[in-house]
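Both lines are quoted verbatim for reference:

——
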Amino acid sequence: MSIVTATIFMNNKSQAIRIPKTAELPEKIKNVNIIVQGNTRIITPINKVWDSWFNDVHTVSDDFMLDREQPQMQERESF
């Protein structure tokens, strides 16, 4: 994953983002979803929100959660 800086500008009365060549989307992608979380915006191809997360085996490092401290299993009565 890399971070690339883009420019925001007004196009008529709408905001637009000029995406640099190093971060451009493939030509076949014509529509995107914009996930809004506070001031953060995540742009992803439409209907592909989770695909890249599950398909990309390099999403996390090899040592991800290696030292995770898991609490002891709790004894609970059945329902």
Notes: Helices lie at 51-55. Residues 7-55 form a domain with the Pemi-like Protein 1; Chain: D fold (CATH 2.10.260.10). The chain is about 5% helix and 30% strand. The chain has a mean pLDDT of 85.
